[in-house]
Structure formats: structure tokens, C-alpha cells
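Form P-L/3: holo structure prediction, ligand MV4.
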Amino acid sequence: MFKKILIANRGEIALRIIRTCREMGIKTVAVYSTADKDSLHVKFADEAVCIGGPKGQDSYLNIPHIMAACEITNADAVHPGYGFLAENAKFAQICADHGIKFIGPTPEMINKMGDKITAKETMIKAGVPVVPGSEGLLEGVEDAKVLAKEIGYPVIIKATAGGGGKGMRVVWNEAEIEKAFDAAKMEAAASFKNDGLYMEKFVEEPRHIEIQVAGDQYGNVCHLSERDCSIQRRHQKLVEESPSPFMTADLRQRMGDAAIKAASAINYESVGTVEFLVDKHRNFYFMEMNTRIQVEHCVTEEVVSYDLIKEQIKIAAGEKISGKNYEPKLHAIECRINAEDPYNDFRPSPGKITVLHTPGGHGVRVDSHVYAGYVIPPYYDSMIGKLITVAQTREEAINTMYRALSEYVIEGVHTTIPFHLQLMQNEEFISGNFTTKFLENFKMK
Ligand code: MV4
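OUTPUT (holo model):
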């Protein structure tokens, strides 16, 4: 097992990783930017190294500085968390070249899933259902027009280097295609320095359901059931839950099998997530695979009683997993508590938390790095923390969530708590009958 892990991240996920390391008897090294000098991850870790200025580029994305921190602290592994360098194949390769274990998949696996056309081709070969679309890159607008006619409108143009909605355009008819193609190409070039595009049939009003998987270095792969992430706004998830209210035993069987096929196709090693679009007929299609631990991993942990960070570390250290799949035994819901103003288009609201009271009691988990007096810096994401409730049924988990949200007091910044309170009382949400379009029509009272 590793003796010392350097955590190349900040905020709640850095704390989450430190907590598991403590339980495993592994020493921890925090790295931090000058903006984070008073952060809890710095105080909770055994050692801490300042790696640069506030901007991500100068600190949490600065590979030479992170490698130097590994060297001076003698860390034998790096945990990248999510965001920042978590899906950076170059960083994973540099770690390997320096004899430091990157706690995640290999650079080859990251690359295969990072390029969406390559990922899709791999899935087709593995027999995983994908949305009908172009074979490889679109050559130009004329090629796109011919293809769209074949596929049938509406279609969606996506960036092969994309993911998470950037460089993506929905096209409803031929009159719109040229503008959409050019806009997607420009956005992809600017965002990813790769303007490669592909096309798919647009699946209308889908659900976003993802399957958590784990694979070890010996070819064992298992799944840990699904999370429903349909409650999103501009590609930012706000609520996730497990099990999905849309799930059936048959659908879980089929999606679980497909996720295992997807991970096995690249001999996946580490924990990861296979994202699917699910239409109203319960047809499902591979969308992308995330080769990192995700923000919403906690809902899975609560329903299958499994520490995903611990497993991720054990897999990286060369331990075997059993290979058996996990069914949800309970219902868990996660609300993302962000420093954003839900009454003003979710505008970011950084600043000092003057008063803080955190909820507790039966079935309540809070993963957060903030304290009274903490200043949320404007340089990073605006997450204050995650509130997770777990209960026997979905109805009880919603009731516990409403109760816990009512106890949560955060003063000094705007938060998404009022939004979540209204959502927990929304009939459509309570019914479980919603799609990724739900929040487009949601209005704050
Ligand atoms: C789609 C789609 C409909 N049809 N692909 C959004 C982010 C990126 N991962 C892919 N996305 C979508 N791809 C086809 N063929 C609809 C979306 C989509 C979406 C997906 C999941 C959750 C929220 C979404 C919001 C808008 C669009």
C-alpha cells in the first residue's frame, strides 16, 4: 500500500480524500494556491505545499509545480480528485515517468475515452448501444447536410474533444445547419484546440442516467448501479440520486451489462462512470465515460455501502476487486450547495461565510470544506458542499432532505438552498417523472 498520497486538488474533494487516507493509515500531502492558504484541506493534511498563485493555471493545473511538491515530500502516489488534472493523460504519463502512481486509469485509457469519436467507435466494437450518427469526423458542411438528411432531423453536432456540452449544437432543419456547424467548429477550436466534429440523431427529452463501475488490474470489472443526474442546468448538475426513479430491474440489468462491456473494452482500471442517455421507451445509448471520481459519487456510496475512494486507492495499489455487482439497498439524494443566487440566474456569489450551521441527524451526510469565517474565492467552482440524505425510500429521502435543508444556515453569500427547498416540494420532482429538460421550465417562487 502507498505510504504517502499527494492530493492534487482543493475544496471538499481534497478533504474527502484525506479522510479516507486517514482511515487507511496513509499519510497525506495537500497542495494549495495562495488563495487557499486558509483552507481546511491544508489544515487537515499531514503536510502542505504552496504551489502557486490563485489561478488554476498557476497552481492546481501547474504540472511542474505539482511534480516538485511530490519530490520534496517524497509522496509515492497522486490523487487528482475531479476537474483540474483528473482526466489529463499527459499528467498521468508524467507521474508514471517519475515513478509516482497516478490514482486513476492509465494515460491510454484516458485518451481513448477523452476523444469522443474514438470512444464511440470502441463502444460499437464492444456491442454497447450508441446513438445513430456519423462514422467518424464530419468533413464539412456539405457532408453534414447529406448525413443529417440520412439520419433525419433533429440532429446534434458535437465536438470530438468535447463533453459536458461545449462545442455542441442542436439542428432542427437544413436551414440552420451551416450556422450551427460553423459555431460548433469555432467553439471547439477555442475550447479544446481541436475543431473535429461529429453528428448524432438528437434524442429529445432524455434522462441522464450513469452507471458507476470499478475495474482492477487483473481484468475484473463490476458495476455499482446507477445515478440519475437529469436535474441539470446548463450542463451543471444540481441534484443526483440513486436509484433512478425511472429504473426497472430489467433496465438495470441491461445498462449494468452495457457499462461492464464498455469498461472491459478498454481493460478499465480504477473507478469510473459510464454515462447514458435514456429515452422514454427505456432505450439507452452510450454518451461518454468519465475516467475520474465524480462529484456525485457519494449517492452511490450511501446506497451500496462502499467507500469508492478507498476502492480507487486499493485498485491503484494493485489489489483485486471481487467482481460482484452491487444493488442499491436504500435511496440517496444529493443536493449541490453552491455559492450562487438562484433568484438571479444562478449568478456566482463568492465571499465570506459569516454564519454557518450545518444540518445533521439520522440519514444526513454533509461533504464540505467550509467553516464560519471562510472566504469562498472567486477563482474556482462555487461549490460550498454537498448535502446527501439516505433513507429506506425515495419519499423519505426527500422528506429528510427538506428537513436538513431547513436546518442549513449559511449567511454572507447567496446559496442554492432556496432552490433545493422549492425543488423538494415540486410535484413533478416528487413524482420522479422528469427529464433533462425539467429545469428549463422551472421558475423560482
Ligand atoms: C445528446 C443529447 C441528445 N441527443 N446527444 C449534453 C452534454 C454532453 N455530454 C452530451 N449532451 C447531450 N447529448 C444526443 N444524441 C442531449 C444532450 C443534453 C444533455 C444530456 C444530459 C444531461 C443534460 C443535457 C442537457 C442538454 C443536452
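COMMENT: The CA atoms of residues 220 and 324 lie 9 Å apart.
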